[in-house]
Amino acid sequence: MTNGCHPALRTPLCALLGCEVPILLAGMGGVSRWELAAAVAEAGGFPTLGMVRESPGLIAREVRALRAATDRPFAVNLIPAATDPDLLDAQIACCLDLGVGAFSFFWDVVPGAVERVKAAGCLVLHQVGTLQAAREAEAAGADVLIAQGIEAGGHVHGRTGAFALAAAILGESRVPVVVSGGIVDGRGLAAALAMGASGVHCGTAFIPTDESFAHDEHKRRLVAAGTADTVLTDVFVLNWPRGAAVRVLANSVTEALGDRLLGHDPATLPREAIAWDDDVARLRFSTDSPLRTTTGELEAMALYAGQGVGQVTDIVPAGERLRRMASGADTLLARLRS
After folding, report:
1. Domains of the chain
2. What is the structure's pLDDT at 2?
3. Of 62, 70, 112, 279, which is most buried with the most CB atoms under 10 A?
4. Rounded to whole angstroms, how far apart are CA atoms 175 and 161?
5. pLDDT tens, 144-163?
6. Distance between CA atoms of 146 and 41, rounded to whole angstroms?
7. Per-residue pLDDT reduced to its tens digit, 303-326
């Protein structure tokens, strides 16, 4: 644990969320399971379980396993716009029954979902990609806004750089603003705090860690990749609304597209199984990334990565990644103050 050894990094967000350093683990679907969340929490950060479209049964198992591993706070990430309404209703009900204290939402703002969990006394963190979405999320009752830039890995909602978007939101918002996209080390954290943001939200930095549920091949590809090795495409769109772009490592699928990376219609894409998780088929062009349990054509799947990937060069425990980030930021901020 950090044991409060970085007081310069403590922002009001830390008190709000109950963490020691303002480093948030992104709720990456499939990847941010209880082991990774517990490791980030124990190191002093604030974790999010990635439970998009997962069954209430799996959510309950993950929440209980996380609580058995740590008594620190956490959030559960759900994505209303990409989830069947009946499943979303069951997911929220399950989380509330379990006493989950914080929710993280993403993509389109769904006021009803925000209002429901707020009425139960929960915190709401809302990741947004535009200034308008930030306004809508705050109006709906969000307690924290996560400004996601186009540099981010995984699903990317907006087309503005992370720091430019965060600056615009900071100019209007009355709630804490967190920067997300391309931040993998202490330099990104220091830059975010120096501009007045309350913290950072990281995904790519925590995929190549011991506790991540990502497949080892995904981890190896990430640490071997350079900054220019990611692409933004909407070809990996099955399971999501049309036009939902993702940032991934270039692979055989994206290379075959040439300059046609965007503009794909899920209704016209073939449904071809190329991998499996137990008896569940994973389709070519789906949003599924390879997990520990996945077998098949892993190279052709969505290998999520943000533009900061070139600075992530090893596979380490998640706590070590977080401590490096915190120490690096502390050093840089001390240098600025002097």
Report:
1. 8-212+313-337 (3.20.20.70), 216-309 (no CATH)
2. 46
3. 62
4. 20
5. 999 999 999 999 999 999 99
6. 19
7. 999 999 999 999 999 999 999 999
- For the record, the structure tokens of 6 come out as 């970085």
Distances (CA, A) of 266 to 120, 146, 258, 263: 36, 28, 18, 10
The CB-side HSE value for 227 (13 A sphere, CA atoms) comes to 7
Q: Token pair of 13, please? A: 């967000």
| Residue 308 main-chain phi, psi, to 5 deg | -80, 0
String of DSSP letters for 33-54: -HHHHHHHHHTT-B-EEE-TT-
* 3-state DSSP assignment of residue 156: coil
The Cα–Cα gap between 176 and 309 comes to 26
How many CA atoms lie less than 13 Å away from 223 in the CB half-sphere?
A: 12
Q: Are 11 and 176 in contact (CB under 8 A)?
A: yes
In the sheet where 246-249 sits, what is the strand order? 154-155, 246-249, 230-233
Alpha carbons 213 and 168: distance in angstroms, whole number: 34
What tokens does 267 get?
């209704």
Can you give the pLDDT at residue 175?
98
Please report where in the chains the tokens 């046609």 appear, as a residue: 260
| Total-model pTM | 0.97
* H or E element, residue 106: none
Q: Tell me which residues of the chain have a pLDDT lower than 50.
A: 1-3
* Single-letter amino acid code for the residue at 115: E
Which residues have CB under 8 Å from 259's CB, separation 6+? Answer: none
Residue 121: alpha-carbon gap to chain centroid: 23
The CA-CA-CA angle for residues 232, 181, 132, to 5°, reads 85
pLDDT of residue 6: 87
**What pLDDT sits at residue 5?**
72
